[in-house]
Design goal:
Helix Hairpins; 4-stranded mixed β-sheet; 3-stranded mixed β-sheet
């Protein structure tokens, strides 16, 4: 195996900060996203990540420095009893008296398996996502069988000790190698590592200890969640078989768009259309916000695209500390059709200002004549 220090391009006496700095530099250079045309980039990236996982952990690094390899045993437990580990090797020589705790350890059954994680979706109104709410979600899940109290055995009976593993949940096998006998331990296939078998299954759940049902859960949605956020409800997933613990429920949030406001991180953005005269002369507008109405003063000479910021009128931060802002973008409505008096006033304004404008067309003169006749 390639030396881990060489992979991270550091000396064996390098400090933790030096190892971290070198790893980040190499990881950035060889990341698959940065090398789309290099098919070896992914394996290289995984290799240095594995090296950093060992050398960044003081205990794992010490063991690596002592044994010089990560092959053949779990770096988190070099004397462990995993298949092929040093614990198995010492078992073959010391047996029940293994000084490193191999065959002498009495392993208990692994116990009932954990239930599956589930996921579902909740659709929220825009304001509910901003201010938080409670919503109900329906899931099809595995629940505890009350008839057998989740044991899987018929009422009046009980699970029996597995005859193959004698209730340990593990079986041991002996393999002959050039070094002698190596003892390996694995999960019992007869009971799946639980140490028990069901001789008389519960008729309600067929021995599974759980049933499939529709359930409704109420979800507390915190203020400030965004579209695509996921909430984790610990222990609300499917229960495990025969009394196993429940998995988790993940609720993916979808937020409906708002007719006025657009969200940009924790800021809200909206457009406000005003008339040309209001932009030129200034005005005060009753502005709609998610908290109610606010007075927005439009100063004289406001230009199209001008942004006004209202502090603290945006989306609450998820950490509960403050809120974003409300950004109001001004749009100026330019009239495409003018009445006679309106056009006459604008032309006189252009004349006073010395602005060059399109000459009066025949239609204008016709309207003038009609006005004088009246």
């Amino acid at each position: 195996m390639t030396d881990l220090y060489e992979l991270l391009e550091v000396e064996r006496d390098a400090s933790a900060d030096e190892i971290k700095k070198s790893y980040r530099r190499i990881a950035r250079d060889c990341h698959p996203d940065a090398n789309p045309d290099n098919p070896e980039a992914e394996s290289r990236f995984k290799e240095i990540s594995a090296a950093y996982e060992v050398l960044s952990d003081p205990a794992k690094r010490e063991r690596y420095d002592r044994f010089g390899s990560t092959n053949g045993f779990d770096m988190s437990d070099p004397f462990g009893s995993g298949a092929g580990g040093l614990g198995d090797l010492f078992d073959s020589f010391f047996g029940m008296n293994n000084p490193f705790g191999g065959g002498g350890r009495q392993r208990g059954p692994s116990g009932p398996p954990r239930g599956e994680d589930l996921d579902t979706q909740a659709v929220l109104e825009f304001t509910d996502a901003v201010f938080g709410c409670q919503c109900d979600v329906d899931v099809r899940t595995a629940v505890r069988c009350d008839d057998c109290e989740s044991t899987g055995a018929r009422s009046g009976s009980a699970p029996e000790t597995c005859p193959q593993c004698q209730g340990s949940g593990h079986v041991r096998t002996v393999a002959q190698t050039v070094l002698g006998q190596i003892v390996r331990s694995g999960t019992c296939s007869a009971c799946g590592g639980q140490g028990q078998i069901i001789a008389d299954p519960c008729p309600t759940c067929s021995g599974a200890g759980r049933l499939i049902e529709e359930r409704t859960y109420t979800v507390d949605v915190p203020a400030g969640v965004d579209d695509g956020s996921t909430l984790k409800l610990a222990g609300r997933g499917a229960v495990g078989g025969r009394g196993g613990p429940a998995g988790d429920l993940y609720v993916r949030l979808r937020v409906k768009p708002h007719k006025v406001f657009e969200r940009r991180k924790d800021d809200l953005v909206r457009e406000l259309r005003i008339e040309l005269t209001q932009a030129v002369l200034g005005t005060t507008i009753e502005l709609e916000t998610l908290d109610g109405t606010e007075e927005l003063k439009i100063p004289r000479g406001t230009e199209h695209g001008k942004v006004f910021r209202l502090k603290g009128k945006g989306v609450p931060h998820l950490d509960g500390r403050g809120r974003g802002d409300l950004l109001t973008v001004i749009g100026i409505d330019i009239p495409s059709k003018l009445e006679f008096e309106e056009e006459d006033l604008l032309r006189r304004l252009a004349e006073v200002r010395g602005d060059k404008v399109t000459p009066v067309d025949e239609g204008f003169f016709s309207r003038v004549k009609t006005a004088f006749k009246n």
